[in-house]
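Lab notebook page, bench 4
Experiment: in silico fold of construct C2
Operator: M.H.
Input chain length: 334 residues
Purpose: comparison with the prior construct
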Amino acid sequence: MIDLVTLKDFLVLCQTRSFSRAAERCHVSVSGLSRRIQGLEQWLGAPVFDRRKTALELTHAGQRLQAVSSEVVYALEGLRKSIKADGEDRQLRIRFAAPHIMSAVFFPDWVPRLHNDFKTAKFSVDSDNLPECMELLGDGSADYVVALFDEAGTVAERLGVVLEAGDHRVLELGRERLVPVSAPNAAGRPLFDLHGRAGEPVSFLGYAAECHLGWSLQPLLKRHGELPLQQNHSASLTDGLRFMALSSLGVAWLPQTLVREDLGAGRLVRAGDPAFDVPLRFTLLRRPEPLAAQAERLWGYLNDLAEAHQAAPADVTTRGGHTLAASETPVHAD
């Protein structure tokens, strides 16, 4: 049976045409190299060098073996380096899966802050609807899922078939809220006011059925069933609802972080008081199995920050209103 080392030694000998020089380059004795070449010739069934001449010359069989060996060694070395590079890259990579909204309200502030302590890490984010993100986590295509979970547990309940107690480890990374907003009228009041005249229809901009923020909004709408909301428009992405709200099409419940600048500039105004807000939590989920090196290191880093936050919350609160880590809690589907 031939091996890669013997083929590489054979190729060196083809270059040097000298057993002594080839043995030196291959870090083997001359007798050891000779035995390897003899074994190669026995395996091939023909001599590869004509030893009757002063200088080593390849036989016809040797020339054919040299051509094939060069391709084989090159291909195997390339494969080895590629697999090694993939493995090294995997140890450095931290893979997130997150709903689209997180790219607007979470990652822009969070990842740059993490980069200061994870300079060699490689971050990647796959954006999709939350159920699809959970599938990526379940099949090992993602290390973490980051999403907004409502305090009422509606999102966890909707994911109950995937998110079972004990199947995930969870960290709360901070707080967010859905706030009702509308374009203003000439007087700076909301065009679509949740405190308007009783019975007067209010155009409502709703989330598409697959959007998890819409799931979080449903309990509040049920509690305020008296609201005369009339849903004429909907969108699967918060950016779409924000654009509709800015275009004076109705009232939308949007993440406060997303509309902070719009509210500050007066492009949007609150359509209702804080009683109509929906409290949310930035939530990080992972599987209990060990992760790659940098991804596992991140979990320990966030747990340390959670302890620091509990001792001194102001030290780790970001300007966006969320922390790098707040507390580790179990998630239950019931």
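Observations: The chain has a mean pLDDT of 86. The domain at 4-89 is CATH 1.10.10.10 (Arc Repressor Mutant, subunit A).
Next step: discuss at group meeting.
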